[in-house]
Design brief:
alpha/beta; 4-stranded antiparallel beta sheet; Sensory transduction protein RegX3; phosphoprotein; Sig_transdc_resp-reg_receiver
């Protein structure tokens, strides 16, 4: 996923860009509001998410958010040290999709990025378009929760489907174990790690594609899209 990072502090931007890159993001760094607005021309410029720090040198971050929303529907996550409710409401009213308060946990930030990107329909997808995800010979029907390989339906449990659908919506992106547990099982990581491993193993076996879900040691899992 392409991500636009709007941050005037080069040291902060470099550190965060390195973390995001390790999790599969293609990061473009804008150091001011004007740079950010230019990067989003035309029509969002293919970015999946904008990570917008409000403390910018040339323009108020809230003003930049409003201008971004007028140009594109690309999800915007505001990043700020302001934690009061009024500031958060103001940002959301201007069109921000989420709000992260400094200092934040990197895992939480990654989870929020994935969450807002999944909630947003791509701008080039027409209304009423195909709601299936295709990964080589694998087809995932989101409304009917049906998965097929080479046209043959594969029976999955509810959690197996939820896990596969989560990974499949961002092929190549590494999902942290904690994030997967939170979004699929709606609980904390403690005591659930073994359950995740069992479900990953089951998916690999049922789909007969051991290499489809790759283990990223010490981090989590990512889906490797097979050849068509």
């Amino acid at each position: 996923m392409r991500l636009l990072l709007v941050e005037d502090d080069n040291h902060v931007a470099a550190a965060l860009s390195a973390v995001l890159a390790r999790h599969g993001f293609d990061v473009t760094h804008a150091r001011s509001g004007e740079e950010a607005l230019q990067a989003l021309v035309p029509e969002g410029a293919g970015f999946g998410v904008v990570l917008l720090d409000l403390g910018l040198p040339d323009q108020d971050g809230y003003e930049v958010c409003g201008k971004i929303r007028k140009r594109t529907s690309t999800p915007v996550i505001m990043v700020t040290a302001r934690s009061d409710v009024r500031s958060r409401i103001h940002g959301l009213n201007l069109g921000a999709d989420d709000y992260v308060v400094k200092p934040y946990d990197t895992g939480e930030l990654l989870a929020r990025i994935h969450a807002v990107s999944r909630r947003t329909v791509p701008e080039d997808q027409p209304d009423g378009g195909d709601s299936a995800l295709r990964l080589g010979t694998v087809r995932i029907e989101l409304p009917t929760r049906q998965v097929s390989v080479d046209g043959s339906v594969v029976q999955l449990t509810r959690k197996e489907f939820d896990l596969l659908a989560l990974l499949a919506q961002r092929p190549g992106v590494v999902f942290r174990r904690e994030q997967i547990i939170s979004e699929v099982w709606r609980t904390s990581w403690e005591g659930t790690g073994r359950t995740l491993e069992v479900h990953v193993a089951s998916l690999r076996a049922k789909l007969r594609m051991p290499a489809l879900i790759e283990t990223v040691r010490g981090v989590g899992y990512r889906l490797v899209a097979p050849a068509a």
